[in-house]
Design a protein that fits this description.
596 residues; alpha+beta; Rossmann fold; eight-stranded mixed beta sheet; four-stranded antiparallel beta sheet; 11 helices; 32% strand
Length: 596
Protein backbone atom coordinates (compact mmCIF):
# COMPACT_ATOMS: atom_id res chain seq x y z
CA UNK A 1 0.00 0.00 0.00
CA UNK A 2 2.98 2.32 0.41
CA UNK A 3 6.47 2.47 -1.06
CA UNK A 4 8.09 4.78 1.46
CA UNK A 5 11.54 3.40 2.26
CA UNK A 6 12.69 6.44 4.25
CA UNK A 7 10.47 6.34 7.32
CA UNK A 8 8.28 3.57 8.80
CA UNK A 9 4.56 4.14 9.22
CA UNK A 10 3.99 4.61 12.97
CA UNK A 11 0.18 4.52 13.06
CA UNK A 12 -2.65 3.81 10.62
CA UNK A 13 -6.42 3.30 10.54
CA UNK A 14 -9.31 2.88 8.14
CA UNK A 15 -11.41 5.76 6.92
CA UNK A 16 -14.93 5.35 8.27
CA UNK A 17 -16.28 4.00 4.98
CA UNK A 18 -13.33 1.66 4.40
CA UNK A 19 -12.42 3.26 1.07
CA UNK A 20 -8.93 4.29 2.12
CA UNK A 21 -6.22 3.82 4.68
CA UNK A 22 -5.17 6.86 6.66
CA UNK A 23 -1.81 7.01 8.38
CA UNK A 24 0.45 9.46 10.19
CA UNK A 25 4.14 9.96 9.61
CA UNK A 26 6.83 12.44 10.60
CA UNK A 27 10.22 13.29 9.13
CA UNK A 28 13.25 11.76 10.76
CA UNK A 29 11.66 11.59 14.19
CA UNK A 30 10.81 15.30 14.54
CA UNK A 31 7.25 14.37 15.71
CA UNK A 32 5.61 16.88 13.37
CA UNK A 33 3.21 14.19 12.17
CA UNK A 34 1.23 14.67 8.95
CA UNK A 35 -1.91 12.79 7.91
CA UNK A 36 -1.71 10.77 4.70
CA UNK A 37 -4.38 8.89 2.74
CA UNK A 38 -4.04 5.87 0.45
CA UNK A 39 -6.99 4.63 -1.69
CA UNK A 40 -7.82 0.93 -1.50
CA UNK A 41 -9.20 0.56 -5.03
CA UNK A 42 -6.98 0.23 -8.07
CA UNK A 43 -3.99 -1.85 -9.12
CA UNK A 44 -0.36 -1.62 -8.17
CA UNK A 45 0.91 0.45 -5.27
CA UNK A 46 -1.22 3.60 -4.95
CA UNK A 47 0.22 7.05 -4.42
CA UNK A 48 -0.21 8.47 -0.94
CA UNK A 49 -1.60 11.98 -0.50
CA UNK A 50 -0.33 14.26 2.24
CA UNK A 51 -3.51 15.81 3.66
CA UNK A 52 -1.71 18.21 6.03
CA UNK A 53 1.33 19.39 4.03
CA UNK A 54 2.41 22.19 6.35
CA UNK A 55 6.08 22.42 7.28
CA UNK A 56 6.76 22.65 10.99
CA UNK A 57 3.16 21.76 11.84
CA UNK A 58 1.99 18.74 13.85
CA UNK A 59 -1.36 17.02 13.29
CA UNK A 60 -3.36 15.27 16.03
CA UNK A 61 -6.24 12.87 15.36
CA UNK A 62 -9.24 13.64 17.58
CA UNK A 63 -12.02 11.55 16.01
CA UNK A 64 -12.87 9.36 12.99
CA UNK A 65 -16.69 9.32 13.15
CA UNK A 66 -18.56 6.70 11.11
CA UNK A 67 -21.45 9.15 10.71
CA UNK A 68 -19.22 11.44 8.65
CA UNK A 69 -17.04 9.10 6.53
CA UNK A 70 -15.59 11.87 4.37
CA UNK A 71 -14.10 13.83 7.28
CA UNK A 72 -12.00 13.34 10.38
CA UNK A 73 -11.53 15.70 13.32
CA UNK A 74 -7.93 16.81 13.76
CA UNK A 75 -5.83 19.33 15.65
CA UNK A 76 -3.21 21.54 13.95
CA UNK A 77 -0.74 23.98 15.54
CA UNK A 78 -0.46 25.95 12.31
CA UNK A 79 -1.69 29.26 13.73
CA UNK A 80 0.46 29.07 16.86
CA UNK A 81 3.18 26.42 17.42
CA UNK A 82 2.16 26.09 21.08
CA UNK A 83 -1.58 25.60 20.48
CA UNK A 84 -3.73 23.13 18.55
CA UNK A 85 -6.91 24.39 16.87
CA UNK A 86 -9.59 21.84 15.91
CA UNK A 87 -10.53 21.31 12.26
CA UNK A 88 -12.66 18.99 10.20
CA UNK A 89 -10.36 17.55 7.51
CA UNK A 90 -11.77 16.36 4.16
CA UNK A 91 -9.96 13.06 3.52
CA UNK A 92 -10.46 13.35 -0.24
CA UNK A 93 -9.30 16.92 -0.86
CA UNK A 94 -7.29 17.79 2.25
CA UNK A 95 -9.40 20.89 2.79
CA UNK A 96 -9.83 21.96 6.42
CA UNK A 97 -12.67 23.72 8.19
CA UNK A 98 -11.98 25.41 11.53
CA UNK A 99 -14.38 24.21 14.21
CA UNK A 100 -12.76 25.39 17.46
CA UNK A 101 -9.97 27.92 17.93
CA UNK A 102 -7.80 27.24 20.95
CA UNK A 103 -8.09 30.12 23.44
CA UNK A 104 -4.66 29.37 24.88
CA UNK A 105 -4.86 26.42 27.24
CA UNK A 106 -6.83 23.64 25.54
CA UNK A 107 -5.15 20.26 25.31
CA UNK A 108 -7.85 18.38 23.42
CA UNK A 109 -11.47 18.36 22.29
CA UNK A 110 -14.20 15.71 22.03
CA UNK A 111 -17.26 15.84 19.76
CA UNK A 112 -20.68 14.78 20.99
CA UNK A 113 -22.96 12.26 19.27
CA UNK A 114 -24.24 14.99 16.92
CA UNK A 115 -20.60 15.70 15.96
CA UNK A 116 -20.63 19.07 17.64
CA UNK A 117 -17.32 19.88 19.37
CA UNK A 118 -18.76 20.60 22.80
CA UNK A 119 -16.08 19.41 25.23
CA UNK A 120 -12.54 20.68 25.72
CA UNK A 121 -9.92 19.98 28.36
CA UNK A 122 -7.15 22.32 29.38
CA UNK A 123 -4.69 23.26 32.09
CA UNK A 124 -6.00 25.84 34.54
CA UNK A 125 -4.08 28.56 36.36
CA UNK A 126 -3.27 26.22 39.25
CA UNK A 127 -1.71 23.62 36.95
CA UNK A 128 -4.68 21.28 37.23
CA UNK A 129 -7.25 20.23 34.64
CA UNK A 130 -10.42 22.10 33.71
CA UNK A 131 -13.33 20.97 31.54
CA UNK A 132 -15.03 23.44 29.23
CA UNK A 133 -18.23 23.24 27.22
CA UNK A 134 -20.26 25.26 24.74
CA UNK A 135 -23.73 24.93 23.23
CA UNK A 136 -22.66 24.00 19.67
CA UNK A 137 -20.05 24.63 17.00
CA UNK A 138 -21.77 27.94 16.27
CA UNK A 139 -21.22 29.16 19.83
CA UNK A 140 -17.82 30.89 20.20
CA UNK A 141 -18.08 31.13 24.00
CA UNK A 142 -16.63 28.31 26.11
CA UNK A 143 -17.76 27.93 29.73
CA UNK A 144 -15.70 26.27 32.45
CA UNK A 145 -17.73 23.39 33.92
CA UNK A 146 -15.37 22.19 36.65
CA UNK A 147 -11.74 22.64 37.71
CA UNK A 148 -9.49 20.05 39.31
CA UNK A 149 -6.22 20.46 41.17
CA UNK A 150 -2.84 19.37 39.83
CA UNK A 151 -2.83 16.53 42.37
CA UNK A 152 -5.97 15.06 40.81
CA UNK A 153 -6.09 13.07 37.58
CA UNK A 154 -9.13 13.19 35.27
CA UNK A 155 -9.43 11.68 31.78
CA UNK A 156 -12.45 12.02 29.47
CA UNK A 157 -13.60 9.10 27.31
CA UNK A 158 -16.74 10.04 25.38
CA UNK A 159 -20.21 11.50 25.67
CA UNK A 160 -22.96 9.48 27.29
CA UNK A 161 -25.75 8.60 24.89
CA UNK A 162 -27.88 11.35 26.49
CA UNK A 163 -25.41 13.83 24.92
CA UNK A 164 -25.37 15.84 28.15
CA UNK A 165 -23.02 13.85 30.37
CA UNK A 166 -19.44 12.72 29.74
CA UNK A 167 -17.66 9.60 30.94
CA UNK A 168 -14.46 10.36 32.89
CA UNK A 169 -11.81 8.46 34.80
CA UNK A 170 -11.34 10.55 37.94
CA UNK A 171 -9.71 10.48 41.36
CA UNK A 172 -10.99 13.92 42.28
CA UNK A 173 -12.02 14.51 45.85
CA UNK A 174 -11.53 12.28 48.86
CA UNK A 175 -10.60 9.10 46.93
CA UNK A 176 -7.29 7.51 46.01
CA UNK A 177 -8.03 5.25 43.03
CA UNK A 178 -9.49 6.59 39.80
CA UNK A 179 -13.15 5.71 39.26
CA UNK A 180 -15.38 5.77 36.20
CA UNK A 181 -17.78 8.69 36.65
CA UNK A 182 -20.27 10.72 34.66
CA UNK A 183 -19.88 14.51 34.58
CA UNK A 184 -23.01 16.55 33.83
CA UNK A 185 -21.91 19.43 31.59
CA UNK A 186 -24.98 21.48 32.50
CA UNK A 187 -24.68 21.30 36.28
CA UNK A 188 -21.11 20.11 36.95
CA UNK A 189 -22.49 17.28 39.09
CA UNK A 190 -20.55 14.00 39.15
CA UNK A 191 -22.09 10.52 39.46
CA UNK A 192 -19.94 7.46 40.17
CA UNK A 193 -20.42 4.58 37.76
CA UNK A 194 -17.80 2.10 38.91
CA UNK A 195 -14.51 1.60 40.74
CA UNK A 196 -12.16 -1.38 40.88
CA UNK A 197 -14.05 -4.29 42.46
CA UNK A 198 -10.76 -5.48 44.00
CA UNK A 199 -9.69 -1.97 45.15
CA UNK A 200 -6.22 -2.44 43.63
CA UNK A 201 -5.93 -0.28 40.56
CA UNK A 202 -7.04 2.92 38.90
CA UNK A 203 -9.85 2.69 36.39
CA UNK A 204 -8.21 1.59 33.14
CA UNK A 205 -10.49 1.96 30.13
CA UNK A 206 -14.09 1.74 29.00
CA UNK A 207 -15.41 -0.20 26.01
CA UNK A 208 -18.56 1.06 24.29
CA UNK A 209 -20.85 -0.22 21.58
CA UNK A 210 -20.92 2.12 18.60
CA UNK A 211 -24.31 0.63 17.67
CA UNK A 212 -26.11 1.33 20.94
CA UNK A 213 -23.68 3.81 22.59
CA UNK A 214 -23.91 1.62 25.71
CA UNK A 215 -21.01 0.84 28.04
CA UNK A 216 -20.33 -2.87 27.42
CA UNK A 217 -17.13 -3.55 29.40
CA UNK A 218 -14.62 -1.96 31.75
CA UNK A 219 -10.93 -2.74 32.11
CA UNK A 220 -8.49 -2.52 35.04
CA UNK A 221 -4.73 -3.03 34.82
CA UNK A 222 -3.21 -4.37 38.03
CA UNK A 223 -0.61 -7.16 38.01
CA UNK A 224 -2.47 -8.43 34.95
CA UNK A 225 -5.50 -7.14 33.03
CA UNK A 226 -9.04 -7.66 34.35
CA UNK A 227 -12.09 -7.22 32.11
CA UNK A 228 -15.63 -6.77 33.48
CA UNK A 229 -18.47 -7.30 30.96
CA UNK A 230 -21.65 -5.25 31.38
CA UNK A 231 -24.20 -7.49 29.67
CA UNK A 232 -24.86 -11.18 29.15
CA UNK A 233 -23.67 -11.27 25.55
CA UNK A 234 -20.33 -9.61 26.27
CA UNK A 235 -19.83 -11.92 29.27
CA UNK A 236 -20.33 -14.87 26.94
CA UNK A 237 -17.90 -13.30 24.44
CA UNK A 238 -15.18 -12.86 27.08
CA UNK A 239 -15.59 -16.45 28.29
CA UNK A 240 -15.28 -17.76 24.75
CA UNK A 241 -12.24 -15.61 24.00
CA UNK A 242 -10.53 -16.86 27.15
CA UNK A 243 -10.88 -20.39 25.76
CA UNK A 244 -9.22 -19.40 22.49
CA UNK A 245 -6.03 -17.95 23.96
CA UNK A 246 -4.54 -17.24 27.40
CA UNK A 247 -3.39 -13.74 26.47
CA UNK A 248 -5.30 -10.52 27.14
CA UNK A 249 -7.95 -10.06 24.39
CA UNK A 250 -8.18 -6.74 22.58
CA UNK A 251 -10.94 -5.96 20.09
CA UNK A 252 -9.08 -3.96 17.46
CA UNK A 253 -12.04 -3.55 15.07
CA UNK A 254 -15.45 -4.94 14.21
CA UNK A 255 -18.02 -5.15 11.49
CA UNK A 256 -20.47 -2.25 11.42
CA UNK A 257 -23.18 -4.31 13.11
CA UNK A 258 -20.63 -5.58 15.69
CA UNK A 259 -21.51 -9.19 14.83
CA UNK A 260 -17.86 -10.03 14.21
CA UNK A 261 -14.80 -8.84 16.07
CA UNK A 262 -11.16 -8.72 15.09
CA UNK A 263 -9.41 -9.83 18.28
CA UNK A 264 -5.69 -9.84 19.04
CA UNK A 265 -4.16 -11.28 22.20
CA UNK A 266 -1.34 -9.81 24.25
CA UNK A 267 0.77 -12.59 25.74
CA UNK A 268 4.43 -12.62 26.82
CA UNK A 269 5.11 -15.74 24.75
CA UNK A 270 2.65 -15.39 21.84
CA UNK A 271 2.27 -11.69 21.09
CA UNK A 272 -0.45 -10.39 18.81
CA UNK A 273 -2.08 -13.65 17.71
CA UNK A 274 -5.13 -12.39 15.79
CA UNK A 275 -8.50 -14.04 15.16
CA UNK A 276 -11.80 -13.22 13.47
CA UNK A 277 -14.42 -13.97 16.13
CA UNK A 278 -18.11 -14.56 15.33
CA UNK A 279 -20.18 -13.37 18.30
CA UNK A 280 -23.27 -15.35 17.26
CA UNK A 281 -21.66 -18.75 16.81
CA UNK A 282 -18.71 -18.32 19.14
CA UNK A 283 -16.37 -19.60 16.43
CA UNK A 284 -12.96 -17.99 15.88
CA UNK A 285 -10.90 -18.14 12.71
CA UNK A 286 -7.15 -17.76 13.18
CA UNK A 287 -5.82 -15.05 10.87
CA UNK A 288 -2.15 -14.33 11.59
CA UNK A 289 0.67 -13.75 14.04
CA UNK A 290 2.34 -10.37 13.42
CA UNK A 291 5.74 -11.80 14.45
CA UNK A 292 5.65 -15.29 12.91
CA UNK A 293 9.39 -15.79 13.39
CA UNK A 294 9.03 -15.89 17.18
CA UNK A 295 8.79 -19.34 18.72
CA UNK A 296 6.59 -19.29 21.86
CA UNK A 297 8.67 -22.06 23.46
CA UNK A 298 11.76 -19.85 23.22
CA UNK A 299 10.11 -16.84 24.87
CA UNK A 300 10.15 -16.24 28.61
CA UNK A 301 7.14 -15.96 30.88
CA UNK A 302 6.63 -12.69 32.75
CA UNK A 303 5.91 -12.84 36.47
CA UNK A 304 4.29 -10.01 38.45
CA UNK A 305 6.30 -9.19 41.58
CA UNK A 306 6.10 -6.73 44.46
CA UNK A 307 8.36 -5.59 47.28
CA UNK A 308 8.41 -3.09 50.12
CA UNK A 309 10.38 0.10 49.51
CA UNK A 310 12.59 1.48 52.27
CA UNK A 311 9.85 3.90 53.41
CA UNK A 312 7.23 1.14 53.58
CA UNK A 313 5.52 1.83 50.23
CA UNK A 314 4.55 -1.28 48.25
CA UNK A 315 6.07 -1.21 44.76
CA UNK A 316 4.99 -3.51 41.93
CA UNK A 317 6.85 -4.71 38.86
CA UNK A 318 7.62 -7.63 36.57
CA UNK A 319 10.36 -10.23 36.42
CA UNK A 320 11.39 -12.00 33.21
CA UNK A 321 13.74 -14.97 33.61
CA UNK A 322 15.75 -16.75 30.89
CA UNK A 323 14.25 -20.01 29.68
CA UNK A 324 15.94 -23.19 30.82
CA UNK A 325 18.33 -21.57 33.31
CA UNK A 326 18.14 -21.97 37.07
CA UNK A 327 17.14 -18.53 38.44
CA UNK A 328 19.94 -18.25 40.95
CA UNK A 329 22.73 -15.68 40.94
CA UNK A 330 21.98 -14.53 37.41
CA UNK A 331 23.36 -11.42 35.77
CA UNK A 332 20.46 -8.96 35.74
CA UNK A 333 19.37 -5.91 33.77
CA UNK A 334 17.13 -3.33 35.45
CA UNK A 335 14.87 -2.18 32.60
CA UNK A 336 13.34 1.21 33.48
CA UNK A 337 10.23 2.47 31.71
CA UNK A 338 9.97 5.97 30.27
CA UNK A 339 7.43 8.65 31.03
CA UNK A 340 7.81 8.77 33.94
CA UNK A 341 3.99 9.05 33.99
CA UNK A 342 3.46 5.63 32.45
CA UNK A 343 3.87 2.04 33.62
CA UNK A 344 5.04 -1.42 32.65
CA UNK A 345 2.35 -4.03 32.01
CA UNK A 346 2.09 -7.78 31.89
CA UNK A 347 2.49 -9.03 28.32
CA UNK A 348 5.00 -9.00 25.51
CA UNK A 349 7.94 -6.65 25.98
CA UNK A 350 10.47 -7.18 23.16
CA UNK A 351 13.47 -5.72 24.97
CA UNK A 352 12.84 -7.84 28.07
CA UNK A 353 12.52 -10.91 25.87
CA UNK A 354 15.76 -10.16 24.00
CA UNK A 355 17.68 -9.64 27.24
CA UNK A 356 16.23 -12.79 28.80
CA UNK A 357 17.20 -14.71 25.67
CA UNK A 358 20.77 -13.53 26.20
CA UNK A 359 20.77 -15.02 29.70
CA UNK A 360 19.79 -12.09 31.90
CA UNK A 361 17.13 -11.81 34.54
CA UNK A 362 15.15 -8.68 33.66
CA UNK A 363 13.50 -6.58 36.37
CA UNK A 364 10.93 -3.89 35.52
CA UNK A 365 9.86 -1.66 38.40
CA UNK A 366 6.78 0.57 38.45
CA UNK A 367 8.45 3.14 40.68
CA UNK A 368 6.41 5.84 42.45
CA UNK A 369 4.98 8.29 39.94
CA UNK A 370 4.03 5.42 37.64
CA UNK A 371 0.38 5.48 36.61
CA UNK A 372 -2.34 3.05 37.58
CA UNK A 373 -1.67 2.69 41.31
CA UNK A 374 -3.67 5.57 42.73
CA UNK A 375 -3.36 9.27 43.49
CA UNK A 376 -1.10 8.84 46.52
CA UNK A 377 1.41 6.67 44.65
CA UNK A 378 1.44 9.07 41.69
CA UNK A 379 1.93 12.19 43.82
CA UNK A 380 4.64 10.53 45.91
CA UNK A 381 6.96 11.36 43.00
CA UNK A 382 6.66 15.16 43.31
CA UNK A 383 10.19 16.59 43.49
CA UNK A 384 11.59 13.05 43.80
CA UNK A 385 13.50 12.71 40.52
CA UNK A 386 16.81 11.09 41.55
CA UNK A 387 15.29 10.83 45.03
CA UNK A 388 12.66 8.37 46.19
CA UNK A 389 11.83 7.43 42.60
CA UNK A 390 15.40 6.21 42.28
CA UNK A 391 15.29 4.58 45.72
CA UNK A 392 12.44 2.39 44.44
CA UNK A 393 14.68 1.11 41.64
CA UNK A 394 17.56 0.38 44.00
CA UNK A 395 15.19 -1.33 46.44
CA UNK A 396 13.98 -3.48 43.55
CA UNK A 397 17.53 -4.53 42.75
CA UNK A 398 18.13 -5.30 46.41
CA UNK A 399 14.96 -7.41 46.49
CA UNK A 400 16.20 -9.46 43.52
CA UNK A 401 19.58 -9.95 45.19
CA UNK A 402 18.03 -10.99 48.51
CA UNK A 403 15.75 -13.43 46.67
CA UNK A 404 18.88 -15.04 45.26
CA UNK A 405 17.88 -14.23 41.68
CA UNK A 406 20.50 -11.60 40.84
CA UNK A 407 24.27 -11.63 41.22
CA UNK A 408 24.99 -8.32 43.01
CA UNK A 409 28.25 -7.92 41.07
CA UNK A 410 26.59 -8.30 37.67
CA UNK A 411 23.71 -5.81 37.53
CA UNK A 412 23.26 -3.51 34.54
CA UNK A 413 20.68 -0.80 33.93
CA UNK A 414 18.94 0.26 30.72
CA UNK A 415 16.04 2.49 29.75
CA UNK A 416 14.74 5.07 27.31
CA UNK A 417 13.64 8.67 27.92
CA UNK A 418 13.02 8.84 31.70
CA UNK A 419 14.54 5.36 31.74
CA UNK A 420 17.66 6.83 30.13
CA UNK A 421 17.73 9.53 32.80
CA UNK A 422 17.34 6.80 35.43
CA UNK A 423 20.31 4.99 33.89
CA UNK A 424 22.46 8.10 34.21
CA UNK A 425 21.23 8.66 37.77
CA UNK A 426 22.00 5.02 38.60
CA UNK A 427 25.59 5.32 37.45
CA UNK A 428 26.23 8.71 39.05
CA UNK A 429 24.29 8.50 42.33
CA UNK A 430 24.64 4.75 43.06
CA UNK A 431 27.62 3.44 41.06
CA UNK A 432 28.28 0.72 43.63
CA UNK A 433 25.02 -1.04 42.63
CA UNK A 434 25.70 -1.32 38.90
CA UNK A 435 28.37 -2.72 36.62
CA UNK A 436 27.37 -0.71 33.52
CA UNK A 437 24.44 1.01 31.83
CA UNK A 438 22.80 1.93 28.53
CA UNK A 439 21.21 5.38 28.28
CA UNK A 440 18.70 5.58 25.40
CA UNK A 441 17.56 9.16 24.61
CA UNK A 442 17.77 10.15 28.27
CA UNK A 443 18.25 13.70 29.62
CA UNK A 444 21.46 14.52 31.46
CA UNK A 445 20.37 17.93 32.79
CA UNK A 446 16.84 18.63 34.00
CA UNK A 447 17.51 22.31 33.37
CA UNK A 448 18.41 22.12 29.67
CA UNK A 449 15.77 19.40 29.19
CA UNK A 450 12.88 21.65 30.24
CA UNK A 451 14.29 24.75 28.58
CA UNK A 452 14.33 22.96 25.20
CA UNK A 453 10.86 21.36 25.22
CA UNK A 454 8.70 21.78 22.07
CA UNK A 455 6.46 24.84 22.01
CA UNK A 456 3.28 22.75 22.25
CA UNK A 457 4.39 21.34 25.63
CA UNK A 458 4.72 24.76 27.24
CA UNK A 459 1.01 25.37 28.03
CA UNK A 460 1.02 22.23 30.21
CA UNK A 461 4.33 22.41 32.08
CA UNK A 462 2.96 23.94 35.28
CA UNK A 463 1.02 20.83 36.26
CA UNK A 464 3.64 18.36 35.02
CA UNK A 465 7.36 19.10 34.88
CA UNK A 466 7.28 22.33 36.88
CA UNK A 467 5.33 20.56 39.60
CA UNK A 468 7.31 17.31 39.65
CA UNK A 469 10.78 18.62 38.75
CA UNK A 470 10.89 22.42 38.95
CA UNK A 471 10.81 25.60 36.92
CA UNK A 472 14.32 26.53 35.74
CA UNK A 473 13.31 30.21 35.84
CA UNK A 474 12.94 29.97 39.65
CA UNK A 475 16.34 30.05 41.35
CA UNK A 476 15.47 27.63 44.15
CA UNK A 477 13.99 25.18 41.65
CA UNK A 478 17.04 25.54 39.43
CA UNK A 479 19.36 24.57 42.26
CA UNK A 480 17.14 21.59 43.08
CA UNK A 481 17.18 20.52 39.41
CA UNK A 482 20.94 20.85 39.24
CA UNK A 483 21.30 18.63 42.31
CA UNK A 484 19.15 15.96 40.58
CA UNK A 485 20.91 16.16 37.19
CA UNK A 486 23.51 13.46 36.36
CA UNK A 487 25.53 15.94 34.29
CA UNK A 488 26.78 17.60 37.46
CA UNK A 489 27.77 14.32 39.16
CA UNK A 490 29.83 12.60 36.45
CA UNK A 491 32.83 12.47 38.77
CA UNK A 492 31.05 9.66 40.62
CA UNK A 493 30.74 7.34 37.60
CA UNK A 494 32.97 4.30 37.82
CA UNK A 495 31.55 2.00 35.14
CA UNK A 496 31.29 1.93 31.33
CA UNK A 497 28.26 3.45 29.64
CA UNK A 498 26.68 3.32 26.19
CA UNK A 499 24.71 6.44 25.18
CA UNK A 500 22.19 6.34 22.30
CA UNK A 501 20.61 9.43 20.72
CA UNK A 502 18.39 10.45 17.81
CA UNK A 503 19.64 13.65 16.20
CA UNK A 504 16.12 15.00 15.56
CA UNK A 505 14.68 14.32 19.00
CA UNK A 506 12.34 17.22 19.91
CA UNK A 507 11.80 16.04 23.51
CA UNK A 508 15.31 15.14 24.65
CA UNK A 509 17.55 17.04 22.28
CA UNK A 510 21.00 15.89 21.22
CA UNK A 511 22.51 18.45 23.57
CA UNK A 512 21.52 16.18 26.49
CA UNK A 513 23.70 13.35 25.19
CA UNK A 514 26.48 15.50 23.73
CA UNK A 515 27.11 17.34 26.98
CA UNK A 516 27.15 14.07 28.94
CA UNK A 517 29.57 12.46 26.51
CA UNK A 518 31.93 15.44 26.71
CA UNK A 519 31.80 15.48 30.51
CA UNK A 520 32.50 11.73 30.71
CA UNK A 521 35.25 11.81 28.11
CA UNK A 522 37.03 14.70 29.80
CA UNK A 523 37.06 12.72 33.05
CA UNK A 524 38.39 9.57 31.43
CA UNK A 525 35.21 7.50 31.89
CA UNK A 526 34.69 4.78 29.23
CA UNK A 527 31.78 5.93 27.05
CA UNK A 528 30.44 4.67 23.73
CA UNK A 529 28.16 6.93 21.68
CA UNK A 530 25.63 6.08 18.98
CA UNK A 531 23.77 8.80 17.06
CA UNK A 532 21.27 8.29 14.23
CA UNK A 533 20.82 11.34 12.03
CA UNK A 534 17.38 10.20 10.80
CA UNK A 535 15.80 9.40 14.18
CA UNK A 536 14.09 11.24 17.01
CA UNK A 537 12.90 10.16 20.47
CA UNK A 538 13.64 6.49 19.94
CA UNK A 539 14.70 4.59 16.82
CA UNK A 540 12.02 3.57 14.30
CA UNK A 541 13.96 2.49 11.22
CA UNK A 542 14.67 -1.23 11.21
CA UNK A 543 18.34 -0.92 10.31
CA UNK A 544 18.95 1.54 13.16
CA UNK A 545 17.06 -0.63 15.65
CA UNK A 546 19.06 -3.73 14.70
CA UNK A 547 22.29 -1.78 15.08
CA UNK A 548 21.15 -0.45 18.47
CA UNK A 549 20.28 -3.87 19.87
CA UNK A 550 23.41 -5.54 18.54
CA UNK A 551 25.46 -2.77 20.15
CA UNK A 552 23.55 -3.21 23.39
CA UNK A 553 23.91 -7.00 23.54
CA UNK A 554 27.63 -6.65 22.81
CA UNK A 555 28.01 -3.97 25.49
CA UNK A 556 26.17 -5.99 28.13
CA UNK A 557 28.01 -9.14 27.06
CA UNK A 558 31.33 -7.44 27.80
CA UNK A 559 30.34 -6.11 31.24
CA UNK A 560 27.78 -8.69 32.44
CA UNK A 561 28.84 -11.83 30.56
CA UNK A 562 25.61 -12.65 28.74
CA UNK A 563 25.32 -14.29 25.35
CA UNK A 564 26.03 -12.33 22.16
CA UNK A 565 24.87 -13.37 18.71
CA UNK A 566 27.87 -14.72 16.84
CA UNK A 567 26.76 -14.63 13.21
CA UNK A 568 25.75 -11.03 12.61
CA UNK A 569 24.97 -9.90 9.04
CA UNK A 570 27.50 -7.54 7.52
CA UNK A 571 24.80 -4.92 6.99
CA UNK A 572 24.23 -4.67 10.73
CA UNK A 573 27.93 -4.41 11.51
CA UNK A 574 28.24 -1.71 8.85
CA UNK A 575 25.30 0.22 10.31
CA UNK A 576 26.80 0.02 13.81
CA UNK A 577 30.01 1.53 12.43
CA UNK A 578 28.04 4.30 10.69
CA UNK A 579 26.15 5.25 13.84
CA UNK A 580 29.10 5.08 16.23
CA UNK A 581 30.53 8.50 17.01
CA UNK A 582 34.16 9.10 17.93
CA UNK A 583 33.73 10.72 21.34
CA UNK A 584 36.88 12.77 20.79
CA UNK A 585 35.02 14.64 18.03
CA UNK A 586 32.04 15.64 20.18
CA UNK A 587 31.82 19.29 21.16
CA UNK A 588 29.26 21.46 22.93
CA UNK A 589 29.13 25.23 23.18
CA UNK A 590 29.15 25.15 26.97
CA UNK A 591 29.14 22.20 29.34
CA UNK A 592 26.92 23.65 32.05
CA UNK A 593 29.13 23.49 35.13
CA UNK A 594 26.86 25.98 36.88
CA UNK A 595 23.60 24.74 35.37
CA UNK A 596 23.07 27.92 33.33
Amino acid sequence: MTTDTIRPVRGYFWSADGSMLLYVQDKGGNENFHVYSVPIEGSGTPEASNLTPHDGVRALIYAVPPERPGEILIGLNQRDPSLFDAYWLDVETGETRLVAENPGNFGGVIPDHDLQVRLATGQNAEGGTSFYTRASDDDPEWREVVAYSAAETVRPFRFHKDNRRVYLASNAGDVNLQRLVLLDLDTGEVEEVESDPESEADFGSAIFSDVTDELIATVYVADTVRIYPKNEQVAKDIDRLRQIHDGTPNVSSSTTDEAKWMVSFNSPTDPGATYLYDRETGEAEFLFRPRPWLEPAQLADVKPVSFEARDGLTVHGYLTLPVGIEPEGLPMVLLVHGGPWARDNWGYQPEAQMLANRGYAVLQVNYRGSTGYGKDFYNAAVKEFAGKMHDDLIDGVQWAVEEGIANPDLVGVYGGSYGGYATLVSLTFTPETFACGVDYVGPSSLITLIESFPAYWRPFLKGTFYRFVGDPAVEADREHMKARSPLFHVDRIEDPILIVQGANDPRVTQLESDQMVVALRDRGIPVQYIVADNEGHGFSNADNRMALYHSMETFFGECLGGRVQKNVPDAIRTKVAELTVDVDDVTVAVVEEEGR
